[in-house]
Specification:
The chain is an alpha+beta fold. The chain has 2 domains: 60 residues; 137 residues, no CATH class. It has 4 helices and 9 strands; from the N terminus they run E-E-H-H-E-E-E-E-H-H-E-E-E. The protein has a 7-stranded antiparallel beta sheet. It has a two-stranded antiparallel ribbon with strand order 1-2. Helix 2 packs across helix 3 and helix 3 crosses helix 4.
């Protein structure tokens, strides 16, 4: 049931006239209602679009209150890399070679064996178990019997330093052999110094070390000699290049 559009009297949806007031077509058909709804919706959409367009125009016409500032960083000048020079420059990691003694390894061994024989000491024999090398130097142990040895540091065939190692058994003979071996080393490395000057100085140096007394190094022919008694190891008599 629907109501008459004129008198609001209930009428059938299919009635052609209103039984109360006689109005023709008292009820609108479904098609008419649909068309009317579409027209109303279209008019509403048009009005809404017009209002929004006006507002957007007003907004864009106004100056920007908070403009976005774009800051560009100044470009750095392009500099060409300097060409590598052909001149060799020593780097900080490069080390200067250690100063060597003025004698080669082969000549030292031959000279030592000759002088050791005069003192009735055994000739030098290389201990292959004590051979060590790094990138620049090697260290070898040469022994004269069971209690006397010489630790030789060398670069190729040039001797850098020699450390005489000796440990006595408490007997007079072992003490004399140690003294003779180190005196022999000094005579080979410093042949230009008279024996009467060299021997007493080396003897005093070794005696002071054995008695645990401080003794200043001595220098002969550009070679510095020093001695120290190391507990558990024995006497260490070293020969290095003088400063």
């Amino acid at each position: 049931m629907e109501t008459c559009r004129t008198c609001k009297h209930p009428v059938s949806i299919n009635a052609k006239t209103c039984p109360n007031c006689g109005e023709k077509k008292p009820v609108e058909s479904e098609n008419v209602r649909t068309i009317a709804a579409v027209l109303v919706l279209g008019i509403f959409s048009f009005l809404l679009y017009s209002v929004r367009a006006k507002d957007e125009k007003l907004f864009t016409d106004q100056p920007d209150q908070n403009p976005v500032i774009s800051i560009q960083k100044p470009s750095l000048p392009i500099t060409e890399k300097p060409e590598a020079t052909t001149m060799h420059k020593a780097s900080a990691t490069e080390e200067t070679p250690e100063p060597s003694l003025n004698i080669s390894l082969k000549i030292w061994i031959a000279s030592m064996n000759k002088e050791l024989a005069k003192s009735k000491l055994k000739p030098l024999k290389a201990n292959n178990d004590n051979h060590e090398c790094d990138e620049k130097t090697c260290t070898d142990l040469y022994e004269s019997g069971p209690r006397i040895g010489f630790l030789v540091k060398h670069h190729e065939n040039n001797i850098i330093s020699i450390i005489g190692l000796a440990s006595g058994d408490g007997s007079v003979k072992s003490g004399v052999d140690i003294l003779l071996a180190n005196l022999t080393l000094a005579s080979v490395l410093s042949p230009n110094t008279q024996k009467t000057i060299r021997a007493p100085a080396i003897n005093k140096l070794i005696s002071s070390a054995i008695e645990s007394e401080k003794s200043d190094p001595v220098v002969f022919d550009g070679v510095k000699y020093s001695a120290v008694l190391v507990k558990g190891m024995g006497l260490m008599f070293s020969a290095t290049k003088a400063d």
